[in-house]
Amino acid sequence: MIADLLPESVVAVEAFGEDGVREFGDGPLFPEEEALMVRAVAKRRREFTVVRSCARRAMDKLGVAPQAVLPGERGAPGWPDGLTGSMTHCEGYAAAALVRAADLASLGIDAEPHAPLPEGVLSAVALPAEQERLLRLAADRPGLHGDRLLFSAKESVYKAWFPLTRKWLDFSEADIEFHADPPPSDVASAPFTGTFRARLLVPGPLVGGRRVGHFDGRWTASRGLVATAIAVHHA
């Protein structure tokens, strides 16, 4: 699911459903990670373990020895030298996407349940222009929860932004516009898919001496989930 949204150079490993979460959740933690989970409730420990199991499998696929993934500044994961990546988890799903830093400058992925946002959240995360565009998207793609899609895209934007800037980015500092792919004419149950552009409303990061003014990404809604992904290329 996430892998379909990213370039071929990226390795994505996902855990789906209770079976996947159970399998990945059995992986051991490194002592440094274990120390962070001493007081964690069972749900938090399971999420922490599953997504790191995904990350270590991705490391292995890239030929990198599995290592601890410790949260750093603002919770951003610390990756082995030479790699960059992103992680996400929600109920019944977890994923990690890793790539060699020589191939991409940054990654951001996010997954959310494909359901409406709780009351009051949309107005807190969406600009007026984004809310207007979501109304048009809803008319064009009935059944798509655009509010949750927007929230996921904003999360992916932040995850791609922070490793490049080490600065906070507010929900109001990126203006996102979605485009939906034409639906297949012969598959009634095909997933919703499309692209998006996040225009940065504050000075963007410098990537290879180039000021980045926007991030481009892809999205999908299927299997009860909404997923978004951004790959930031080198200049």
Please tell me what the overall shape is: globular
Biggest sheet, spatial arrangement of strands? 4-10-9-6-5
**Content-based structural category:** alpha+beta
Order of helices and strands: EHHHEEEHHHEEEEEE
**Percent in helix:** 25-40%
Proportion in β-strands: 25-35%
Q: What radius of gyration results from the CA coordinates?
A: 18 Å
Number of strands: 10
Multimeric state: single chain
With helices defined by DSSP (H or I, 4 residues minimum), what is the helix count? Answer: 6
Characterize the main sheet. Answer: 5 strands, antiparallel
Low-confidence stretches: none
Average of per-residue pLDDT values: 94
Termini separation comes to: 27 Å
Structure description:
The protein is an alpha+beta fold and 235 residues long. 31% of the residues lie in helices and 29% in strands. The chain is built from 6 helices and 10 strands, in the order E-H-H-H-E-E-E-H-H-H-E-E-E-E-E-E. It has helices at residues 17-25, 31-36, 42-61, 121-125, 128-140, 146-165; strands spanning 11-16, 83-90, 93-100, 106-113, 174-180, 192-200, 206-207, 210-211, 214-222, 225-232. It has a 5-stranded antiparallel β-sheet with strand order 4-10-9-6-5. Helix 1 (17-25) packs across helix 3 (42-61). The chain is globular, with a radius of gyration of 18 Å. The model has no long low-confidence stretch (mean pLDDT 94).
